[in-house]
Description:
The protein contains seven helices and 15 strands. It is of the alpha+beta class. The mean pLDDT is about 95.
Amino acid sequence: MTIADDLRQLAADLAQEAGDLAKRRRAEGVALADTKSTLADIVTHADREVEALIRDRLRVERPDDGFLGEESGDATGTSGYTWVIDPIDGTVNYAYGVPMYSTSIAVVRSGDPDVLDGVASAVCAPALGELFTAASGEGAWHNGQRLAVTRDWPAGALLATGFGYDPRTHAGDLATVARVMPLARDLRRGGSAAIDLAYLAAGRLDGFFERGLHPWDYAAGALMIAEAGGTFERLGTVDEARRMCIAGDAALVKRIRERVEAAD
Ligand code: IPD
């Protein structure tokens, strides 16, 4: 067993346990705890409870590692590893009772969102009964099957995207969609970027683009895509908080990037 494999096993166990807790809390009824950047950007009590569960487990299992969580902030470690956590990615789906939500867990080397140096990751979608994992140099996996991104899209690419919570950004994002659409056979907006990226690694989507994602939304999926032979990149932009993420086979990423940048 390599260290990456050990960490993948831990990430998978944590994601499954955390996802199961989120699913149980969902069945009991969802209580809104707060809003964040805008009224549409919500956090539930379950988001906080699930992140606390993961953080507590890591304090015991990996006390020297750093932590970066969507709900409870960051802590620097001494081991050189940082855990990047989204306890419930797709919180709006979760609040509405749509099953496309997930627990996303990645362990990375630097903790710098621009350095995509994942070591291991797991995305658990408990209401869908699915768990995706990856380990650096060891592949990306689902149900014992090794994942590979798609390489061609003769009828156009099946793309996924997402929109941020700030209504002022919607017009710009829709203009981007209009520029990218000529590449598409169709477009999905699932509501959990972590699931979108895991699906892309699994060949269930051809390409992905979204502005303004946070490291906890993409860290786990970015490693899965790299391990499945694909490319995940963040474009530089004047607006640091709204950088564009693009993923897919390298050739498709290039074609999406050309269209995204056509008006930037
Ligand atoms: C959100 C989801 C969504 C994406 C948003 C994210 P959250 O994460 O990943 O698909 O479009 O940009 O913020 O807020 O539900 O953890």
